[in-house]
Design goal:
Blueprint (H helix, E strand, L loop, with lengths): L1 E9 L3 H16 L6 E8 L5 H11 L3 E6 L4 H11 L2 E7 L10 H9 L5 E5 L7 E2 L2 H18 L10 E5 H7 L10 H11 L4 E5 L2 E2 L8 H19 L12
Parallel strand pairs: 1-2, 1-4, 2-3, 5-8, 6-9
Antiparallel strand pairs: 4-7, 5-7
Amino acid sequence: MKDLCVAVPVLNEERDLRKSVPLLHGFLSRQTQWLWEVVIADNGSTDGTLAIAKELGAALRNVRAWHTDVKGRGGALRQVWLEAEAKVLAYMDVDLSADLAYLPPLVQAVRSGGYDLAVGSRLLRPGLVRRGLKREALSRGYNWLLRLALGVHFSDAQCGFKTISCAAVRALVPLVEDNGWFFDTELLVLAERQGYRILDLPVAWKDDPDTRVRLWSAAIADVKGLIRLRRKLGRGSPPSNARLA
Protein backbone atom coordinates (compact mmCIF):
# COMPACT_ATOMS: atom_id res chain seq x y z
CA MET A 1 0.00 0.00 0.00
CA LYS A 2 1.27 3.46 -0.89
CA ASP A 3 1.65 6.22 1.69
CA LEU A 4 -0.06 8.88 -0.44
CA CYS A 5 -2.39 9.18 -3.41
CA VAL A 6 -2.86 12.71 -4.77
CA ALA A 7 -5.92 13.22 -6.98
CA VAL A 8 -5.90 16.18 -9.34
CA PRO A 9 -9.44 16.69 -10.72
CA VAL A 10 -9.48 18.27 -14.18
CA LEU A 11 -12.14 19.51 -16.58
CA ASN A 12 -10.86 21.14 -19.78
CA GLU A 13 -7.51 22.04 -18.20
CA GLU A 14 -5.11 21.42 -21.08
CA ARG A 15 -3.46 24.80 -20.48
CA ASP A 16 -2.44 24.10 -16.87
CA LEU A 17 -1.89 20.36 -17.08
CA ARG A 18 1.43 20.31 -18.96
CA LYS A 19 3.14 22.68 -16.54
CA SER A 20 1.54 21.81 -13.18
CA VAL A 21 1.79 18.02 -13.15
CA PRO A 22 5.56 17.98 -13.83
CA LEU A 23 5.98 20.54 -11.03
CA LEU A 24 3.94 18.39 -8.66
CA HIS A 25 5.83 15.27 -9.77
CA GLY A 26 9.17 16.96 -9.10
CA PHE A 27 8.07 18.08 -5.65
CA LEU A 28 6.80 14.63 -4.67
CA SER A 29 9.94 12.97 -6.04
CA ARG A 30 11.95 14.94 -3.50
CA GLN A 31 9.76 13.65 -0.65
CA THR A 32 11.70 10.41 -0.28
CA GLN A 33 9.85 9.41 2.91
CA TRP A 34 6.67 8.64 0.92
CA LEU A 35 5.57 6.00 -1.53
CA TRP A 36 3.17 8.04 -3.65
CA GLU A 37 1.14 8.32 -6.83
CA VAL A 38 -0.62 11.13 -8.69
CA VAL A 39 -3.95 10.46 -10.38
CA ILE A 40 -5.07 12.98 -12.99
CA ALA A 41 -8.84 12.63 -12.63
CA ASP A 42 -10.42 13.82 -15.86
CA ASN A 43 -14.17 14.28 -15.50
CA GLY A 44 -15.84 14.97 -18.82
CA SER A 45 -13.24 17.10 -20.61
CA THR A 46 -13.98 17.95 -24.23
CA ASP A 47 -10.59 19.46 -25.15
CA GLY A 48 -7.16 17.79 -25.18
CA THR A 49 -7.01 17.28 -21.42
CA LEU A 50 -7.38 13.50 -21.44
CA ALA A 51 -4.77 13.03 -24.17
CA ILE A 52 -2.30 15.20 -22.27
CA ALA A 53 -3.05 13.32 -19.03
CA LYS A 54 -2.26 10.03 -20.76
CA GLU A 55 0.98 11.46 -22.17
CA LEU A 56 2.04 12.59 -18.71
CA GLY A 57 1.11 9.22 -17.25
CA ALA A 58 3.34 7.50 -19.81
CA ALA A 59 6.25 9.91 -19.30
CA LEU A 60 6.29 10.41 -15.52
CA ARG A 61 6.84 7.73 -12.91
CA ASN A 62 3.91 7.21 -10.50
CA VAL A 63 1.54 9.39 -12.53
CA ARG A 64 -1.54 7.92 -14.19
CA ALA A 65 -4.61 9.19 -15.99
CA TRP A 66 -8.14 8.34 -14.89
CA HIS A 67 -11.27 9.25 -16.86
CA THR A 68 -15.03 9.41 -16.62
CA ASP A 69 -17.43 11.00 -19.08
CA VAL A 70 -19.50 12.35 -16.17
CA LYS A 71 -18.67 15.91 -15.12
CA GLY A 72 -18.25 16.73 -11.44
CA ARG A 73 -15.21 17.21 -9.25
CA GLY A 74 -16.85 15.47 -6.31
CA GLY A 75 -17.80 12.44 -8.34
CA ALA A 76 -14.25 12.12 -9.67
CA LEU A 77 -12.78 12.38 -6.18
CA ARG A 78 -15.28 9.86 -4.87
CA GLN A 79 -14.26 7.19 -7.38
CA VAL A 80 -10.51 7.83 -7.32
CA TRP A 81 -10.34 7.89 -3.53
CA LEU A 82 -12.47 4.77 -3.07
CA GLU A 83 -10.39 2.87 -5.62
CA ALA A 84 -7.00 4.03 -4.27
CA GLU A 85 -4.73 1.80 -2.22
CA ALA A 86 -3.03 4.39 -0.04
CA LYS A 87 -2.90 5.30 3.65
CA VAL A 88 -3.48 9.00 2.95
CA LEU A 89 -5.64 10.42 0.16
CA ALA A 90 -5.25 14.00 -1.00
CA TYR A 91 -6.47 16.34 -3.66
CA MET A 92 -5.40 19.70 -5.01
CA ASP A 93 -6.44 22.08 -7.76
CA VAL A 94 -4.59 21.63 -11.04
CA ASP A 95 -3.42 25.25 -11.11
CA LEU A 96 -1.38 24.61 -7.92
CA SER A 97 -2.71 27.77 -6.32
CA ALA A 98 -1.68 26.40 -2.93
CA ASP A 99 2.04 26.48 -2.16
CA LEU A 100 3.23 22.85 -2.28
CA ALA A 101 5.49 23.51 0.70
CA TYR A 102 2.35 23.18 2.84
CA LEU A 103 1.55 19.69 1.57
CA PRO A 104 3.94 17.74 3.86
CA PRO A 105 2.34 19.11 7.07
CA LEU A 106 -1.11 18.16 5.78
CA VAL A 107 0.08 14.67 4.87
CA GLN A 108 1.99 14.14 8.09
CA ALA A 109 -0.95 15.27 10.22
CA VAL A 110 -2.99 12.36 8.83
CA ARG A 111 -0.17 9.88 8.30
CA SER A 112 0.90 10.14 11.95
CA GLY A 113 -2.58 9.23 13.11
CA GLY A 114 -3.05 12.55 14.91
CA TYR A 115 -5.83 13.68 12.59
CA ASP A 116 -8.34 12.05 10.27
CA LEU A 117 -8.53 15.01 7.87
CA ALA A 118 -6.27 18.00 7.29
CA VAL A 119 -7.70 21.04 5.53
CA GLY A 120 -5.84 23.93 3.95
CA SER A 121 -7.34 27.30 4.84
CA ARG A 122 -7.06 30.60 2.96
CA LEU A 123 -8.92 32.47 5.69
CA LEU A 124 -6.89 31.92 8.86
CA ARG A 125 -3.87 34.02 7.80
CA PRO A 126 -4.87 36.53 5.09
CA GLY A 127 -1.27 37.69 4.74
CA LEU A 128 -0.42 34.39 3.03
CA VAL A 129 -3.13 34.77 0.40
CA ARG A 130 -3.25 36.68 -2.89
CA ARG A 131 -6.63 36.72 -4.58
CA GLY A 132 -9.19 39.16 -5.89
CA LEU A 133 -11.74 40.99 -3.80
CA LYS A 134 -14.72 39.20 -5.37
CA ARG A 135 -13.37 35.73 -4.64
CA GLU A 136 -12.35 36.74 -1.14
CA ALA A 137 -15.79 38.16 -0.39
CA LEU A 138 -17.61 35.12 -1.80
CA SER A 139 -15.40 32.73 0.16
CA ARG A 140 -15.76 34.55 3.45
CA GLY A 141 -19.50 35.00 2.95
CA TYR A 142 -20.03 31.33 2.17
CA ASN A 143 -18.01 30.08 5.14
CA TRP A 144 -19.78 32.54 7.44
CA LEU A 145 -23.12 31.22 6.18
CA LEU A 146 -21.93 27.67 6.75
CA ARG A 147 -21.00 28.41 10.35
CA LEU A 148 -24.32 30.18 10.91
CA ALA A 149 -26.42 27.42 9.37
CA LEU A 150 -24.63 24.34 10.67
CA GLY A 151 -22.39 25.51 13.50
CA VAL A 152 -19.18 24.15 11.95
CA HIS A 153 -15.72 24.94 13.29
CA PHE A 154 -13.43 24.55 10.26
CA SER A 155 -12.66 27.81 8.50
CA ASP A 156 -12.49 27.16 4.74
CA ALA A 157 -14.68 24.41 3.32
CA GLN A 158 -13.81 24.89 -0.34
CA CYS A 159 -10.04 25.25 -0.35
CA GLY A 160 -8.70 22.83 -2.99
CA PHE A 161 -5.95 21.44 -0.77
CA LYS A 162 -6.93 18.60 1.57
CA THR A 163 -5.79 15.25 2.94
CA ILE A 164 -7.84 12.46 4.51
CA SER A 165 -7.12 9.01 5.91
CA CYS A 166 -8.06 5.88 3.99
CA ALA A 167 -10.30 4.79 6.87
CA ALA A 168 -12.16 8.11 6.87
CA VAL A 169 -12.65 7.91 3.10
CA ARG A 170 -14.15 4.45 3.35
CA ALA A 171 -16.52 5.52 6.12
CA LEU A 172 -17.53 9.01 4.99
CA VAL A 173 -17.41 9.27 1.21
CA PRO A 174 -20.28 6.80 0.62
CA LEU A 175 -22.44 9.07 2.79
CA VAL A 176 -21.77 12.18 0.70
CA GLU A 177 -24.59 12.82 -1.78
CA ASP A 178 -23.11 15.66 -3.81
CA ASN A 179 -20.86 14.97 -6.80
CA GLY A 180 -20.07 18.58 -7.66
CA TRP A 181 -18.51 21.55 -5.90
CA PHE A 182 -20.38 20.95 -2.65
CA PHE A 183 -18.65 17.59 -2.16
CA ASP A 184 -15.92 19.19 0.01
CA THR A 185 -18.35 20.93 2.31
CA GLU A 186 -20.59 17.92 2.77
CA LEU A 187 -17.62 15.67 3.52
CA LEU A 188 -16.27 18.05 6.17
CA VAL A 189 -19.66 18.62 7.79
CA LEU A 190 -20.30 14.87 8.06
CA ALA A 191 -16.79 14.31 9.41
CA GLU A 192 -17.22 16.96 12.09
CA ARG A 193 -20.66 15.71 13.06
CA GLN A 194 -19.26 12.21 13.54
CA GLY A 195 -16.34 13.30 15.67
CA TYR A 196 -13.49 12.90 13.22
CA ARG A 197 -10.35 14.89 14.05
CA ILE A 198 -9.85 17.80 11.64
CA LEU A 199 -6.71 19.93 11.35
CA ASP A 200 -7.39 23.46 10.05
CA LEU A 201 -4.07 24.69 8.64
CA PRO A 202 -3.38 28.13 7.10
CA VAL A 203 -1.69 27.84 3.69
CA ALA A 204 -0.10 30.23 1.22
CA TRP A 205 -2.36 30.69 -1.80
CA LYS A 206 -2.19 32.58 -5.09
CA ASP A 207 -5.29 32.51 -7.27
CA ASP A 208 -5.02 31.58 -10.93
CA PRO A 209 -6.45 34.56 -12.88
CA ASP A 210 -7.46 32.22 -15.73
CA THR A 211 -9.35 29.70 -13.61
CA ARG A 212 -12.08 27.64 -15.32
CA VAL A 213 -14.32 27.88 -12.26
CA ARG A 214 -17.49 29.90 -12.84
CA LEU A 215 -17.66 31.68 -9.52
CA TRP A 216 -21.34 32.56 -9.38
CA SER A 217 -22.62 29.20 -10.64
CA ALA A 218 -20.33 27.40 -8.18
CA ALA A 219 -21.51 29.68 -5.36
CA ILE A 220 -25.18 29.03 -6.20
CA ALA A 221 -24.56 25.27 -6.30
CA ASP A 222 -22.88 25.48 -2.89
CA VAL A 223 -25.77 27.39 -1.36
CA LYS A 224 -28.26 24.88 -2.74
CA GLY A 225 -26.19 22.08 -1.27
CA LEU A 226 -26.06 23.88 2.06
CA ILE A 227 -29.84 24.24 2.16
CA ARG A 228 -30.24 20.53 1.38
CA LEU A 229 -27.76 19.51 4.05
CA ARG A 230 -29.27 21.91 6.59
CA ARG A 231 -32.67 20.31 6.07
CA LYS A 232 -31.19 16.84 6.33
CA LEU A 233 -29.11 17.39 9.46
CA GLY A 234 -30.69 20.35 11.19
CA ARG A 235 -28.59 22.98 12.87
CA GLY A 236 -26.34 22.02 15.71
CA SER A 237 -22.78 21.72 16.94
CA PRO A 238 -20.75 18.54 16.55
CA PRO A 239 -21.25 15.80 19.16
CA SER A 240 -19.41 16.16 22.42
CA ASN A 241 -16.73 13.67 21.37
CA ALA A 242 -15.70 15.71 18.32
CA ARG A 243 -11.94 16.17 18.19
CA LEU A 244 -11.04 19.30 16.28
CA ALA A 245 -7.79 21.20 15.96
